[in-house]
Specification:
This protein has about 280 residues and is of the alpha/beta class. The protein has a single domain (about 15-265), classed as Alpha-Beta Barrel (TIM Barrel). The chain has helices at about 30-40, 55-70, 90-105, 125-135, 150-155, 175-185, 205-215, 220-230, 240-245, 255-265; strands at about 10, 15-20, 20-25, 45-50, 80-85, 110-115, 140-145, 165-170, 190-195, 230-235. The strands form two sheets. An eight-stranded parallel β-sheet has the order 3-4-5-6-7-8-9-10. Strands 1-2 form a two-stranded antiparallel ribbon. Strand 6, helix 4 and strand 7 (about 140-145) form a beta-alpha-beta unit. The radius of gyration is 18 Å and the shape is globular. The N and C termini lie far apart (about 40 Å). Keywords: Oxidoreductase.
C-alpha cells in the first residue's frame, strides 16, 4: 500500500525504491537546481532522478550533500538514479560513464542506473556492463528507460539479470497498457517520466472535473492515477510550492470508475521521441 511520501516498492533483487521522487530534466546547473533538490529532500522526498545527458549531475550532487547535512540524513536515506547516454553505450564505455556520473555527483554508488534509450545494436553490451556493476555491488539496482516490449524481449535473450525498472513516458494520453501488463508479468517496475505531459494536460476537462471533486489540482489527480496503477512517478519542478503540492497525493483515492475514465483518455500521444524511431 502506498501510504505516504516514504512508501517504497521492493524491486527484483530486494532493493526498495520510493514510489515518488523528483525529476530534474531540463533543469540547468546552478542555484535553482541546487535549491530544488534541497527543497524536495527537506519536504520528504527521498528519490532524485537525473541523467548524464541532463548536464546537471554536479548540481544534483551539491544539492544532495547540502540537504543531507541540513536535514541530518545519511546517504542511505536517499535513492539516486542516473542514466548512461547513447554515445556511451558499449561495455567499456558504459563502465566509464558510470564512474563519470559518480564523480560528478560526488557519490560512492548509485541506487539505480539505467540505459537511457534502446539504441539498436548497442544496448546489449551496455546491459552487460550494468550487470557487471550490479554483480560487483557497485550499484544497488539496474534498469532501462524507453524500452518497448520487443526491446525487452530482445534483451532477455542474452541477459543474465532482468531489468528491475523500465522508465518510460507515461501519462493519461499515453497509457502504455500493453507495456504495463508485460512489465508486471516479468517483475519489472514501470516508472513514469513526463507524468504531467510537460503541462499539456492542465486544461483537460475530465481531469479538471475530477480535480474539482477532490479539491485537488490536475497534476495531483494525474500523479495519484500513476500511483494507483502501481507506477513510480518523478514529476519535475523547481518551485518549492509545486514540489510540496505534487507530493500531496496521499490523502485521497480515485474510484475505479475514475481510473477507467482517465485510462480512456489514451491517444497514444507522445511529447517525447518514439523509442522505435529516434536518431540521437
Amino acid at each position: 500500500m502506498i501510504h505516504n511520501l516514504h512508501s517504497k516498492v521492493t524491486l527484483q533483487g530486494g532493493v526498495q525504491m520510493p514510489w515518488f521522487g523528483l525529476g530534474v530534466f531540463q533543469v540547468e546547473e546552478g542555484s535553482e537546481l541546487v535549491e530544488a533538490v534541497k527543497s524536495a529532500i527537506k519536504h520528504g522526498y527521498r528519490s532524485i532522478d537525473t541523467a548524464a545527458i541532463y548536464g546537471n549531475e554536479s548540481g544534483v550532487g551539491q544539492g544532495i550533500r547540502e540537504a543531507l547535512s541540513e536535514n541530518n540524513l545519511s546517504r542511505e536515506d536517499l535513492f539516486i538514479t542516473s542514466k548512461v547516454w547513447n554515445s556511451d553505450l558499449g561495455y567499456d564505455e558504459t563502465l566509464a560513464a558510470y564512474d563519470t556520473s559518480l564523480s560528478k555527483l560526488g557519490l560512492d554508488y548509485l541506487d539505480l542506473y539505467l540505459i537511457h534509450w534502446p539504441v539498436a545494436g548497442k544496448y546489449k553490451e551496455a546491459w552487460r556492463a550494468l550487470e557487471t556493476l550490479y554483480k560487483e555491488g557497485r550499484v544497488k539496482a539496474i534498469g532501462v528507460s524507453n524500452f518497448q516490449i520487443h526491446h525487452l524481449e530482445d534483451l532477455f535473450a542474452d541477459a543474465e539479470i532482468k531489468p528491475m525498472v523500465n522508465q518510460v513516458e507515461f501519462h493519461p494520453y499515453l497509457t502504455q497498457k500493453e507495456l504495463l501488463s508485460f512489465t508486471r508479468e516479468h517483475g519489472i517496475q514501470l516508472e513514469a517520466w513526463a507524468p504531467l505531459m510537460q503541462g499539456g494536460l492542465l486544461s483537460q476537462p475530465l481531469l479538471q472535473a475530477i480535480a474539482a471533486k477532490y479539491g485537488k489540482s490536475v497534476p495531483q489527480i494525474i500523479l495519484r492515477w500513476d500511483l494507483q496503477h502501481g507506477v513510480i512517478t518523478i514529476p519535475k519542478s523547481t518551485k518549492e510550492h509545486r514540489i510540496i503540492e505534487n507530493a500531496s497525493v496521499f490523502d485521497f483515492e480515485l474510484t475505479q470508475d475514475e481510473m477507467n475514465q482517465i485510462d480512456d483518455l489514451n491517444q497514444n500521444r507522445r511529447v517525447g521521441p518514439d523509442p522505435d524511431n529516434f536518431d540521437f
